[in-house]
Write a structure and sequence with these properties.
This protein is an alpha+beta fold and 206 residues long. It contains four helices and five strands, in the order H-H-E-E-E-E-E-H-H. The chain has a five-stranded antiparallel sheet with strand order 1-2-3-4-5, with helices on both faces. The longest helix is centred in the first third of the chain and has 48 residues. 28% of the residues are buried.
């Protein structure tokens, strides 16, 4: 004898029957009124196209504005770390993914843009390197580090520690000479890693 179905199974079957019945009614209605369905579809497509176009326009304008602001801030930062009359982008083809590009600073040395990963994401920064291979300055272009902690990497008191340094640097917790920011060792290590990458990239130029 067939086993009696439990309550949950019966309810599931009832829901399925209900859905099938209403799905059939909807299909019949669509078949009886194809013009209305076609009109609604066209209206939805037009609305979707308008929204997509507006979003694309906003993104285009915003992207251009952001790019212009970043370029302006980068130029100011380059002048800060190693003043020069002009900068010529040399590019970078090495294996260090932290290095974005290298600029020659009209006979003064080089400015290297590096993007190490910090606690809150990427840290876009530039490092000035003299012809003698010493750090002339460090400037932060953009970052998303924690306010009051890692964000303090923008302060002169922290960045100035790198000036005059050569070779491989490390924070004091790792046996180096760089005093890490209070409560932001990860950020301090990231900036230090960026400085090391910049020095190594210039050294590779020969």
């Amino acid at each position: 004898m067939e086993e009696q179905k439990d309550l949950s199974t019966l309810r599931a079957e009832e829901h399925m029957t209900f859905l099938k019945k209403h799905a059939a009614k909807l299909c019949k209605s669509m078949m009886d009124h194809p013009a209305a369905v076609s009109f609604l579809c066209r209206q939805k497509l037009i609305a979707a196209a308008i929204v997509a176009g507006l979003l694309g326009l906003v993104n285009y304008v915003t992207a251009d504005r952001i790019a212009a602001l970043n370029a302006e801030k980068t130029a100011v930062s380059m002048q800060e770390v190693l003043p020069a009359g002009s900068y010529t982008e040399l590019g970078y083809s090495g294996e260090d993914s932290t290095v974005a590009t290298i600029y020659e600073a009209e006979g003064q040395g080089y400015v290297v843009e590096v993007i190490p990963s910090g606690f809150g994401g990427e840290i876009d920064m530039v490092v000035g390197v003299s012809n003698e291979g010493t750090v002339t300055g460090v400037a932060i272009i953009s970052m998303s580090e924690t306010s009051g902690l890692g964000a303090n990497a923008t302060k002169e008191s922290f960045r100035s520690q790198y000036i005059g340094k050569t070779g491989t640097q490390a924070v004091s917790k790792d046996g180096g000479e760089i005093d890490a920011l209070t409560g932001a060792t990860i950020t301090s290590r990231a900036v230090t890693r960026g400085v090391n990458s910049a020095l190594a990239a210039v050294e590779e130029l020969g």
